[in-house]
Amino acid sequence: xxxxxxxxxxxxxxxxxxxxxxxxxxxxxxxxxxxxxxxxxxxxxxxxxxxxxxxxxxxxxxxxxxxxxxxxxxxxxxxxxxxxxxxxxxxxxxxxxxxxxxxxxxxxxxxxxxxxxxxxxxxxxxxxxxxxxxxxxxxxxxxxxxxxxxxxxxxxxxxxxxxxxxxxxxxxxxxxxxxxxxxxxxxxxx
Length: 190
Hints:
Strand order of the largest sheet: 5-4-3-6-7-8
CATH class: Alpha Beta
Strand content: 25-35%
Number of helices: 6
CATH architecture: 3-Layer(aba) Sandwich
Distance between the termini: 29 Å
CATH topology: Rossmann fold
Number of strands: 8
Oligomer: single chain
Order of helices and strands: HEEHHEHEEEHEHE
Structural class: alpha/beta
């Protein structure tokens, strides 16, 4: 498993895009019910053309060479996975993409996985923003249940600082492209 270094220009561009389009300050109540003076809506970056390309280049730089597929829990993972797989294809790298549904579908092919994922695939699970890492862990469980192996979990932004320990306890290495301190804030959960 080889990890290339992130291009500092790409990382600086991603940080600037997130600060310009995704980070908000004020009074917010987080999903956990906790109050916060800042909020990040990473979809404002991962769904805008300039941000999409930066995210794809950054994610591809940290993907293991043997990864076959990328995906995660819908909706946070979808834009990250799909743009990364698309840019990978443009570069000549075959990387499948998939979504993990919140609930199993009881009709059609059924199950929680939608998209291209096969048993035995080496998978990177992803998410736009993580606080604790529970969405990534839910995706890991679904991928494993589908017979694939998770080789890495990647978040565009880690706002909490605890995902690495949570995923590590399940034997999954974790990499965040940027953490809360990179955006000028302290981690929420440490």
